């Protein structure tokens, strides 16, 4: 047994979660002190005068009313899109819940009899029907938490964007703090919510399961499936929305009409800003929550069939949750460095301050992991290793979690090197714009492919070390290590779209050049940090998928996955093709939605008299509707591809072919998720600038729709296979049984 008692563990985990929630509320309260005046319904009307200080000679009231109006339009657009999306997702969740219950219930013919345990031989476990029921409940809880994470993130971002714009009038430091605090609200809410709901679920399920930990933690895997299935649709739907609006706004506005980005004359400008919130914020929130839930579920499942589970050592069993609890505390301290301990006085300090967050959280978390590993784990124990037992010491697990954590930092810094305009890769791409869009695209694609190399080596090293030390459990806690500082990672990530929106609002409200320059500087740093967030997401997805793959292989009773057997090899080839098929679907969806958007923006410029001169207002609502309708319609086929593949492979071809499909999709999906776009140099309106805009427009759907959705593809197929493993093992492989 470790030093921590079960009672203390039961107190520490929820306390950490409540600290995270409390800190998120405190940050939100501090952001809300910046007043936005206007008559948008949420605020106290015209009399509520704007902040003190700011620009000279500008009618404060007029500008602030404009800002409030724009903020309201963005908020209403984002909320209505998400509500419509959630209606579709509600129907899907209901249907899929019934599927889970029927498939898992039929494993033992809906019998209510208790049965011998699969791993803990000699003991009696609860019936398969109970597992079916509790897995369904866990699936619904995961789905609700995922949707909540995305929705709250979007609400906070649309609340903070105008406040960041207004604070930029006082200086870049003040604006940075508002944007970063708002990102922190989302980060801490998500980490604390995920942890708390998982902890409550385990304790409630325990009331029924008692000593049957095998069944308990197997049914908890539904939590990860719920989280990721919502994330997939959120990511794909949001990604199509944001890129349709972005491509439409950029091609007609910047290239054809020569007007600046976020110009209020551009009809797609509100849709573009709404897209930042539903794609980059709500989609990213659900995605990282899914990774967090799945890595926790994979680790808990493998532990439950190891000595932790058989000896009922609750503290050691809860090791993944204690690591996450420590992560919340570490991230809280880290956040103070950005908001309270160091003040930003100059534009050049923004990016270093954000990068410092990554380093500080990683260093502090390493010490935190050492403490947790020493106090929560016995000095020696055995872990399940594909039918054999592996003897492991507590310091082995310290190294497993730490290497995941540091691999995350390496991926973050590599991504930053390849996407920041401070380094040579982006400068080379910008330089290539002088000879037109074609060379720009060629350089940009080459850069994207090249940026995969170092992250893949980092992931490979993390996998080798953690598997050698602690088998599949090592890989799942390594993934958890990468995600342990999720609060800080998300704060940095959400900061990007909030700053981007703030810049858009400043441009639309007609604020001075100085304010716009400050918001541009915040936005430029935000673009890089958003890329770092995507790097973390794909890196953690690779580790999580492998951990889930290991859990699936264990659960399906496969002793080895032999690539030379035809059953496995056909799965491998098909699995490796899936990311390409999926990317093709999402790219085409963005293309067809953007086509409609371009036509609408052109139509408005050509038919509304006085629009280019600024005398008439464009029809923003039609563009918002085009993006909404297109994204909701187009998200269904890619989503269906991912959700149905494991079911079809498992039912018709059996668990071995499905194992091949998972391995193939993991290996090819991780590589493809690395594409990044380049940024532009040269005066706006010049040919070089237009070439950069075209390159940017081509790269956008790669980096914001296909790329980020691929990491959900590889995780979701693995967790779905794990949840349905008992059914596939019993009834799967129909085609091979017939022939």
Please describe what this structure looks like.
This protein is an all-alpha fold and 739 residues long. It has one domain (6-38, 59-556). Helices cover 78% and strands 2% of the residues. It has 21 helices and four strands. The strands form two sheets. The chain has a two-stranded antiparallel ribbon. A two-stranded antiparallel sheet has the order 3-4. Helix 5 (213-256) packs antiparallel against helix 6, helix 5 (213-256) runs parallel beside helix 17 (566-607) and helix 6 packs parallel to helix 16. The longest helix has 46 residues, at 60-105. The chain is globular, with a radius of gyration of 25 Å. It starts with 5 loop residues before the first helix and ends with a helix.
| SS strand fraction | under 5%
**What class do helices, strands and sheet pairing give?**
mainly alpha
Helix content: over 70%
The ordered H/E elements are HHEEHHHHHHHHEEHHHHHHHHHHH
Mean pLDDT: 88
How large is the radius of gyration? 25 Å
Outline the biggest β-sheet: 2 strands, antiparallel
Compute the number of helices: 21
Which stretches are poorly predicted, pLDDT < 50 over at least 5 residues? Answer: 39-58, 675-681
Give the N-to-C terminal Cα separation: 52 Å
């Amino acid at each position: 047994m470790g030093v921590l008692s079960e009672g203390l563990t039961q107190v520490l985990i929820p306390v950490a979660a409540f600290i995270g929630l409390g800190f998120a509320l405190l940050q939100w309260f501090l952001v809300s002190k910046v007043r936005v005046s206007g008559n948008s319904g949420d605020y106290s009307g015209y009399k509520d005068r704007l902040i003190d200080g700011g620009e000279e000679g500008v009618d404060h009231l007029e500008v602030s009313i404009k800002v409030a109006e724009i903020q309201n339009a963005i908020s209403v657009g984002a909320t209505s899109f998400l509500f419509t999306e959630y209606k579709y997702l509600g129907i899907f969740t209901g249907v899929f819940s019934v599927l889970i219950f029927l498939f898992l219930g039929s494993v033992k013919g809906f019998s209510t009899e208790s049965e011998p345990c699969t791993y803990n031989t000699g003991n009696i476990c609860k019936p398969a029907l109970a597992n079916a029921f509790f897995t369904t409940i866990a699936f619904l809880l995961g789905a609700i938490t995922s949707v909540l994470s995305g929705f709250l993130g979007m609400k906070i971002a649309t609340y903070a964007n105008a406040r960041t714009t207004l604070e930029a009038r006082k200086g870049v430091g003040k604006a940075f703090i508002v944007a970063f605090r708002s990102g922190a609200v989302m980060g801490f809410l998500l980490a604390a919510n995920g942890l708390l709901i998982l902890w409550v679920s385990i304790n409630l399920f325990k009331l029924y399961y008692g000593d049957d930990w095998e069944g308990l933690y197997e049914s908890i895997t539904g939590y990860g499936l719920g989280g990721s299935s919502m994330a997939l649709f959120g990511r794909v739907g949001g990604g199509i929305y944001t890129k349709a609006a972005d491509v439409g706004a950029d091609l007609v506005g910047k290239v054809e009409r020569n007007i600046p980005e976020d110009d209020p004359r551009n009809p797609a400008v509100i849709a573009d800003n709404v897209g930042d919130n539903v794609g980059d914020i709500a989609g990213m929130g659900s995605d990282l929550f899914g990774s967090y839930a799945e890595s926790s579920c994979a680790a808990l499942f493998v532990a439950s069939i190891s000595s932790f589970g058989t000896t009922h050592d609750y503290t050691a069993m809860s090791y993944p949750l204690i690591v996450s609890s420590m992560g919340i505390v570490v991230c809280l301290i880290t956040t103070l460095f950005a908001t309270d301990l160091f003040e930003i006085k100059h534009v050049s300090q923004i990016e270093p301050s954000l990068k410092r967050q990554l380093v500080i959280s990683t260093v502090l978390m390493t010490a935190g992991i050492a403490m947790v590993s020493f106090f929560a784990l016995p000095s020696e124990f055995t872990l399940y290793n594909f039918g054999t037992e592996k003897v492991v010491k507590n310091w082995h697990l310290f190294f497993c979690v730490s290497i995941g954590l540091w691999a995350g930092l390496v991926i973050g810094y590599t991504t930053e090197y390849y996407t920041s305009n401070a380094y040579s890769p982006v400068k080379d791409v910008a330089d290539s714009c002088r000879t037109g869009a074609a060379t720009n695209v060629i350089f940009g694609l080459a850069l994207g492919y090249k940026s995969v190399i170092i992250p893949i080596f980092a992931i490979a090293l993390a996998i080798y070390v953690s598997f050698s030390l602690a088998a599949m459990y090592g890989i799942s806690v390594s993934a958890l290590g990468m995600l342990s500082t999720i609060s800080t990672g998300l704060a940095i990530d959400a900061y990007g779209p909030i700053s981007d929106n703030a810049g858009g609002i400043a441009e639309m409200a007609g604020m001075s050049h100085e304010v716009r320059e400050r918001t541009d500087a915040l936005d430029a740093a935000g673009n890089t940090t958003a890329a770092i967030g995507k790097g973390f997401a794909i890196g953690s997805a690779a580790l999580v998928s492998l951990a889930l793959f290991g859990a699936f292989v264990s659960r399906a009773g496969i002793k080895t996955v032999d690539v030379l057997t035809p059953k496995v090899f056909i799965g491998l080839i098909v699995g490796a093709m899936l990311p390409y098929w999926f990317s093709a679907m999402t790219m085409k969806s963005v293309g067809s939605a953007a086509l409609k958007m371009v036509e609408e923006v052109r139509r408005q410029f050509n038919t509304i008299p006085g629009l280019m001169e600024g005398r008439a207002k464009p029809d923003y609502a039609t563009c918002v509707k085009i993006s909404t309708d297109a994204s909701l319609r187009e998200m269904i086929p890619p989503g269906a591809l991912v959700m149905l593949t494991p079911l079809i492979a498992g039912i018709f071809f059996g668990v071995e072919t499905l194992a091949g499909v998972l391995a193939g999709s993991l290996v090819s999906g991780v590589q493809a998720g690395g594409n990044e776009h380049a940024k532009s140099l040269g005066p706006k309106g010049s040919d070089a600038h237009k070439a950069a805009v075209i390159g940017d427009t081509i790269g956008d759907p790669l980096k914001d729709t296909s790329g980020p959705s691929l990491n959900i593809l590889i995780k979701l197929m693995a967790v779905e296979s794990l949840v349905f493993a008992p059914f596939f093992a019993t009834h799967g492989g129909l085609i091979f049984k017939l022939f």
